[in-house]
Design brief:
About 50% of the residues lie in helices and about 15% in strands. It has eleven helices and eight strands. Helix 1 links the parallel strand 2 and strand 3. Helix 3 packs antiparallel against helix 10, helix 4 crosses helix 5 and helix 5 crosses helix 6. The longest helix has 20 residues. The chain is globular.
Length: about 260
């Protein structure tokens, strides 16, 4: 199974989802986000797949949303449509019965971070750059980012990470519990494959049942979070701070925010 920007390979009970825009460090435009949500929805309903691996082609897991696409007058990113797809993606990732593993190298930033930490197991290389850095362009975490951060590190630390946009390496992310395993550079994919095989040789039905029980109470909370993210993101897109943030990003300069 392959789409334009997302590749999916299924071998026996293992599916591998690859973000395939290496020239853009797998930064996602609206089309890529929709494709990914469709792929995860489809895998969720595939009873023959028991483990799903997520990885990025090239130098990064995913640099998040494609900031340059936000400025493209010929292909404007419609925030309403995007948030629908990102809400679908977050809910599918959290509720899918398969055990999910993120293999992180390079950047896992913004939406890329949300997707990684939504997985059941996150393995990252020492030099990875992991950040919930929406603040840099005057936006909010999306893709369930608020929910997944809180699940992993608690409310107080989640606020600090969101507000600061701190960029963490693998060791720092593991230290605070944001990821589950840190490995040497170049080893994330091997470690993820090994973990996948370990799980496939375990009673996966029992593991999936425990996941369902542990996540049951969170489903309604996540639904509310993605609703609030959608409303908040639409409001932030209209701010002058957001316009300044993306312009500064493209011009590679420090933004000048005014709180407007």
């Amino acid at each position: 199974m392959m789409t334009k920007q997302i590749e999916v390979e299924i071998q026996d009970r293992l599916a591998t989802v690859t973000f395939n825009q290496p020239s853009a460090m797998n930064a996602m435009d609206g089309e890529m986000m929709r494709e990914l949500a469709d792929v995860v929805d489809e895998l969720k309903g595939n009873s023959t797949v028991h483990v799903v691996l997520f990885r990025g082609a090239g130098r990064a897991f995913s640099a998040g949303g494609n900031v340059k696409a936000m400025l493209d007058p010929h292909g404007p990113m419609k925030m309403e449509d995007i948030m629908v797809d990102l809400s679908r993606l977050a809910l599918a990732l959290y509720s899918m019965p398969q055990i999910t593993i993120a293999s992180v190298h390079g950047a896992a930033a913004g939406l890329g971070c949300s997707i990684a930490i939504a997985c059941d197991i996150v393995i990252a290389e020492e030099s990875s750059k992991i950040a919930m850095n929406f603040i840099g362009i005057g936006l909010l975490p999306d893709g369930g980012g608020h929910f997944f951060l809180k699940e992993r590190v608690g409310t107080a630390r989640a606020k600090q990470l969101i507000w600061s946009g701190e960029v963490m390496d693998g060791k720092r992310a593991a230290q605070i519990g944001l990821i589950d395993q840190v490995v040497a550079d170049g080893e994330a994919w091997n470690a993820a494959q090994q973990r996948a095989q370990q799980i496939l040789h375990s009673p996966t039905a029992s593991m999936a049942a425990s996941k369902q029980i542990l996540h049951a109470a969170g489903i309604e909370k996540l639904k509310r979070v993605v609703e609030l993210e959608s409303e908040g993101q639409a409001a932030m897109r209209r701010t002058s701070d957001h316009r300044e943030g993306i312009q500064a990003f493209v011009e590679k300069r420090k933004p000048s925010f005014t709180g407007q």
